[in-house]
Amino acid sequence: MKRSFLRSEILPLFHGNRSLALGIALTSLFIMAALLSFVWTPYDVTALDVSTRLTAPSTTHWFGANHLGRDVLSMTMVGARISIAVAFIAVGLGGAIGVPLGLLAAAKGGLIDDIVMRFGDLVFAFPALILAILITAVFGPSATNAIIAIGIFNIPVFARLTRSAALPIWHKPFVQAAQCAGKNLTQISAQHIFPNIRHVLIVQGTVQFALAILAEAGLSYVGLGAQPPIPSWGRMLAESQTMISTAPWLVLFPGVAIFVFVLGLNLLGDGLRHHYDPRRQRGF
Amino acid sequence: MSLALNIKNLSLTIDDTGILKGVNLTLEAGKITGLAGRSGSGKSMTAFAAMGLTPSRSRVKGSILLDGQNLLEKTDQEMCALRGQKIAMVFQEPMTALNPLHTIGAQIAETILIHSDATRDEAHAKAETLMERVGLPLHEIAPTRYPHELSGGQRQRVVIAIAIAMNPNVLIADEPTTALDVTTQAQILSLLRELTEQNNIALLLITHDLAVLSSISDSIAVMRDGCIAGVSETKAFFQQTHADNHFGLLPAPVVKPEKPATLEKTPPPILEASNLVCTYIQNKKSLFSEPEIFRAVDGVSLTIRKGEHVGLAGESGCGKSTLARALLGLHELASGSIKIDGEDFPSTTPAHTKHIRKKIQIVFQDPYGSFNPHQRVEQIIAEPFHLFDQPLSKPEQKERVHDALETVGLEKKAAEQFPHEFSGGQRQRIAIARALITEPEIIVFDEATSALDNISRNKVLDLLMQLADERSVSYLFITHDLTVIRDVTDRAFIMKQGRFVEEGPTNQLLTSPKHAYTKALVEAAPTIHWTDPAIEAT
Amino acid sequence: MHKFDTLKPVMVLCALAFFLLSGAAFAAAPETGALNVGVQLEPPNLDPTSGAAAAIDEIVYANVFEGLTRITEEGTAAPALAKSWTVLNDGLVYEFLLHQGIKFHDGTAFDADDVVFSLNRARAPTSSNAQRPLFEQIKTVEALTSHQVRITLHKPIGAFPVYLGWGDAVIVAPESVATNASMPVGTGPFRFQRWRKGASITLIRNENYWGDAPALDEINFVFIPDPTAAFAALFAGDVDGFPNYPAPENLALIERDPRFKILYGTSEGEMLVAINHGKAPFDNLLVRRALNHAIDKDVVIKAGLFGFGTPIGSHFPPHHPAYVDHSERYPYDPTLARKLLSEAGYPNGFSTVLTLPPPSYARRGGEIIAAQLEAVGIKVQIRNIEWAQWLDQVFKNKEYDLTIVSHTEPLDFDIYARDDYYFQYNNSDYNSLITQLQSESDETKRNSLLQEAQRILAEDAVNVFIASSPKTAIWTKTVSDVWANAPLQANDFTRTQNTGRIAVTTKDTTTAFPAFSILLLITCIAFGSVAYFGRARISFLASRFISMLMTLAAASIVIFLLIEIAPGDPAAFMMGLNADPASVSALKAELGLDRPALFRYFSWIGGLMTGDFGTSYTYRVPVSELIAERFWVSLPLAIIAFSLSTAIGIPAGLMAAARRRKPSGQIIVNAAQAGIAVPNFWLAILLVLIFAVTFRWFSAGGFPGWDVGLLPALKALLLPAIALAIPQAAILTQIMRTSMINTMHDDYVRTARAKGLNTNDALRTHALRNALIPVLTILGLQFAFLLAGSIIVENVFYLPGLGRLVFQSIAQRDLIVVKSIVMTLVFCVILVAIFVDLAYSIIDPRLRKVGTS
To answer: How far apart are CA A201 and CA A194, in angstroms?
Structure first.
């Protein structure tokens, strides 16, 4: 199976699935840029150069330079790093806690199920960014607190999704067969439930990842995300907003970066959803 | 004798794949024409072509003549005027064929409003008479009810009422009873028969079940691979015994091995269940009232002896699946006890429970849902090894899996494959292999054959009989299908509303049922009337 | 008949919305001479004698309140309520002769007793006056006659008449002193008219003013904290100018614009890097000098202040006659800085934290300074905090290493002599110098003492003195006679004229309709309609209701706990920068902040139950009133955005479903994918750029209030609504499309076709309503999101809505407001969820009472 992995697993992915191809392309572009920024950026992102203040995009500064003379391309690359890191850890955190909770709720039902569901109700009762803003405002603005704030929101998202995807699986005969084979709830959850809801979680993961990117941008736009001098897209927007008429590229590039990255992730999610669509897969 | 619908040389392609390849079929007024065939043979697509409801990507050729007009030349607007008016259709799945948000009265009246100048009130009044006509008395079923408040049979009556509202010349019923219980099926079929005769309708009855046709159709057309393989009078059809195996539609009968019945007088009991009660908590009526408790299994006792084949029959919802789950320890008992091989099950310690579990295994109905689609057959079959106190070595496991596969008639290499690569019948063999792997004393079959076509079913049953001959394993067949009971069991129970209403040796139970319910079941079960050994099917 | 059933609740809602919107008063009576002034900070209250926030003086000083003396544009004391004064006993006794016939705005007469009352109140031990130590220098205040006052001091104070001109020394009347915080009553040329919290304060002409009548009829102070919004408001013509323009980066552009004039004036603001002398290594003079050499002040001025600043070398404004230029004392020399650091014992530098308050000079300057310090080996971690935290952590508790701040109080060099000041600087020479200065009234001698003080501060490298930031005022050319310089942080508009704007006299109606009763009303309608329809499953609704209550209770605990552990003392914030600790604790007691937490939780909950949300710490008005005011911005905004999103999303989704195999359908899908990915605040910025700045079709932000008319108010909400609606519409489009595609393949649609319906009719009558069921959930979520989640977009447009109020209150540590708003929002979200459930049970018969099961 391994030798034909590329042919059997990877290539068919793209067959008639432009969303997936484009999604993967855009997403990996940003991930590459973020990874590249660890070893190389066109300019040092923290270095100040008053002589290049507010330079328009040119061959030397592709995305122009900001009011401190910093290179916008370099900042956008490093900004991608922060965005991805915050979103990835936040979603990972949500998944790492939410998925087991959801599996547990589906397996046990009863009180645990109730608690998990009510916890979701509680978190969802806080509109949009209010909870995140409360948390970051209380514990101080930082990338870590932004992660926690966004992560907390993701826990019930994953818990509920996992639970609702797992419940029908629990009624499948193969789960009863596993019970007849003496497997306990944990073993069944791990061996039978999880593999069968994995694709749902992956699709939701990309969606949540995109939402987390937007949330991180929003938080750092109001100054509650990563702190300077670490560049982040939201803060780049906030800082350059005042210069919108004199240096519109400062507002343009971070905004476009958020937009394109989120678009890429959404396309990836759509593509995966299409790929995993049961109507496309006989026998699944 | 007048020709109501004449389908000539009808062919249909979807995305260049030929689905229908020159179908010729005629329907007569006041007669029922059966259209039989295995799934995928093009039965439904023929119906949709006649209705002008083929999928948008399909291309249709040939002609369908209704009242001398070729339906295939009509625009959709013209077809709209004919659909429901001249030609109507009843669908397979009554649970989803009705709009859940509209009252049944409104849904019936809608047809009348589309095709006549009737006022809203007139249409609703007509709808009420139609409901009476299809056996939905108004004092029991108000037209203001919503579909979810009706049973499956009642809904199918509503769908029929919609179809006959404008007294069409042609009625197409696509598997109208497949989703229904045996007794309901019998009622719906007799309603269709009655309507056909009284309203002089030409009825095309599509089904995969020859037994249904044998009781009510006037003629039978068999479809195979997008063509009509043959048409004949119903009587004639069943008289030409095994001539060409009825276009591959009829299976060879199950061979029940001769049993040395008197060899052992009373073999030891392997499964003893006494006074089992299983309950479900219903939704609360109001917030403060006690939750209502539904007793799905209500005081049932049964004993199965070593080597015995026992049947348990009943209609859906009678509690038989809950009982099966309870016997396997998958559903908590409200009261009562289960002994397997003389030991209490479940036992006090998990380890001992596991030990007893080895002796009882199950095969499920759904050959698609019975396996984790992400596991290979080897993993699936090997799963019950978990019950062994001493884990087996990998090669030993593999060997046993291979043995089990060969036992059920599959090749060794099947172990490397995924379940979706097999057909329904093969999957049930894999399920049997999984059940056999721990060498249990008893296997429970929960509707294990009802998702299979006749031929596969009989092959699976043959295999089971053969296995029983080789090893002294007991079987409990839980089914709604009396055929299975008749074909393979020694003794049977009839279950209704959580209780056993009758039990006894199979032959006696089926030939001279004592309880009224058993009688109704036996009578409702469609039977193919011919001289050969009776073959029944759902 | 079912269609009507579905429509009914919608119609009820529409009627309600229309009633609410049209209920706003219409009034427009043009007159003359109004001035819309943009100011950066909203004052916490309007009583200059009980809070030190400069934002208070910016509004009321000289306009509403007057003192015995007034500060002129040059910074000297001029007669005001006092016609003249004489100094006796070597500066120990002052006798003031008052003007006669002056009346307060409420009609009560002004006389010597009011002066005695005001000054005694300021120096009383319970006084919460921010300058209490100054007034404690007063020994007695006596009314000699009704128009003569004698003040005796403990010891001579040289600049006493100047101090009496400060905002903290304005004369208040005992009859109105209690309500001055929210309804200031003074003797000035303008009367307070209205305060729209978070948005604006309006003053109108005092027709009975004792002095020369002011030229303006009306002054509107509009609060615009965000530099971008300030720029946009200026260009959109929402304001006539800013006495302190917060976005120096735009000045070049403004200079080119013929509509505006820029006035560069002196100010008392000294921007400095404050150093905590109480912490090693900053107690080391060499380290401090190294810092001074390491920072290139010119670069900081150029990039951080966009060139608008004069280098200074000490804590003294350049426009003062006693000013000495010390700016070259520590030239930029990183090598020397490193050398000094090695000498001090830090050859490899050290790590430190640079704490930055919100203003852009601090944030931008901080980044540059951090980079420059890194260059000499000092590792700098930047910490951005809110003003409230700054006041609490830096100013009060002195928990900081370095911070950047601008000191704007005039002639405040005495802060370096205070024992407990946050610099923790202690130099006995300096202290005795200041003591000397306080009793010296001879101008020449004073100046030489002041020069010595500057020298000491520079030599000791007490702080890194960066620049005196000029007061950059921007006015449209129609505005004349405004102060260019800022001896006080105040805006004296007594003589100002504006020919460019006519006053819109508005009725004095504050719509104080408690938010709670609105919510109650909505709940009643919800359950009333259930009773009316009478067919929803009672158990279903009852269990939803119980779980709603449980969620509310849990949410209240979470909110309370979060708020409880939030750092920052609201009392300290309210008292401002130079507040006296005793006054702070007096205020704490007054606000009940010293009670145990459990008590506060239950009194909060109890208050919520009865509709009493408590009183805002900062605004000193009932929280319910505050929320109600904001609710009338957020709710209409949400309704407009929601209507837009629904009006776009549902038809687009249906169209995309119907044409899913055609290019036009694919285009809709692609557009929706793009729409979902756009961050709404970015969209908002772009909309402002396009429609407000470039085309000037819309105002760039702000909210005129419903009482100026329905249309202007709706117009102000349109751009933010579009920014909010587009991503939501995109989501809705996708959901509607998916739902419709799923539904159109359902069996009953085929049944309908078999009945003889054509495709469109079958979809319309059968698929659509079923497809709407999942969409309903999304609609509910979206409405809840729009009601409260618009926080960021409200910031872009400086709309005084609920979301922004949360943010402002967090920034100001107005915890009781935060608690109550978040609670209200949670309540709204849950209410919407209940509405959705209700709608479900109306649309979907499967959730209704069943005849037989």
So the answer is: 9
* Number of helical (H) and strand (E) elements in chain A, helices listed first: 12, 0
> Which of C542, C769, C845 is facing B146, going by the closest CB pair?
C845
Cβ neighbours of residue B154 under 8 Å, at least 6 residues apart?
B136, B141
The owner of tokens 């009422």 is B161
Of A260, A282, A267, which Cα lies nearest the Cα of A30? Answer: A260
Q: Do the Cβ atoms of A283 and B418 come closer than 8 Å? A: yes
| Strand positions, DSSP E, C246-370 | 260-265, 270-275, 310-311, 351-356
> Which residues of chain C lie closer than 8 angstroms to A118, CB-CB?
547, 550-551, 554
Tell me the domains of chain A and their CATH numbers.
Answer: 18-37+64-281 (1.10.3720.10)
pLDDT over 70 (residue C567): no
Measured between CA atoms, the residue of chain B closest to residue C848 is B146
Nearest to C723 by CA among C792, C772, C781: C792
- Given a cut of 80, whether residue C473 has pLDDT beyond it is yes
**Measured between CB atoms, which of B357, B371, B385 is closest to A180?**
B357
Q: How far is C344 from chain A (nearest CA, A)?
A: 27
Give residues 678 to 707 of C whose Cβ lies within 8 Å of A: 678-679, 681-682, 685-686, 688-689, 693
* CB contacts, 8 Å: A262 with chain C: 676-677, 679
My answer on whether omega of the bond before B346 falls inside 30° of 0, hence cis, is yes
Higher pLDDT, C136 or B285: C136
- State phi, psi for B274 to the nearest 5 degrees: -130, 130
Residues 6+ away with beta carbon under 8 Å from A225: A82, A86, A136, A141, A143, A146, A216, A217, A219, A232, A234, A235
* CA angle in degrees (0–180, nearest 5) for A48-A50-A53: 100
Share of chain C above pLDDT 90, in %: 17
CA distances from residue C624 to B9, B336, C785, C818, C820 in whole angstroms, order as listed: 79, 62, 21, 12, 8
- 8 Å CB contact between C583 and C401: no
Chain C residues with CB-CB distance to B111 below 8 A: 755-756
Q: What is the pTM of this model?
A: 0.77
The shortest C-alpha distance from A199 to chain B (Å) reads: 12
List of domains in chain B: 3-248 (3.40.50.300), 268-359+479-538 (3.40.50.300)
CB C269 within 8 A of CB C469: yes
Give the A:B interface size as CB pairs under 8 Å.
Answer: 68
Cross-sheet strand order for the sheet of B474-479: B360-363, B442-446, B474-479, B309-313, B491-496, B499-505
Phi and psi torsions of C223, nearest 5°: -90, 115
pLDDT tier at B61 (50, 70, 90 boundaries)? confident
- pLDDT tens column, A202-255: 888 888 988 899 888 888 888 788 777 778 888 888 877 777 777 788 888 889
* Residue in A173, A178, A196 closest to B373 by CB: A196
